[in-house]
Amino acid sequence: MHVSQDIEIHMTKESTGYAGTHFVPMFPLPYSSRPSVVARTTISTDKAIGSFTARHPGHAVLFTIANCTEPRSQQIHAKCPALDIIVLP
Description:
Shape: flat
Oligomer: single chain
Number of strands: 8
Mean pLDDT: 91
Distance between the termini: 9 Å
Structural class: mainly beta
Number of domains: 1
């Protein structure tokens, strides 16, 4: 991406509740490892869609809070990388 560009992240929803008619995100919206490079700027009312803006050149990773397993070591981590972003001028 380039500085000032936006990206929109959509989280998959799952049904919940007695009738299964209420939908919530399966995982929370990701957060930026470096908000000075890529910052979350908007969140939808259902918390399933978030917009991120590239603010400065650099590298940032968007992480979501979820248990994930590293393929090589089989270690479980409490956060998962969702998107690796390089921001160009």
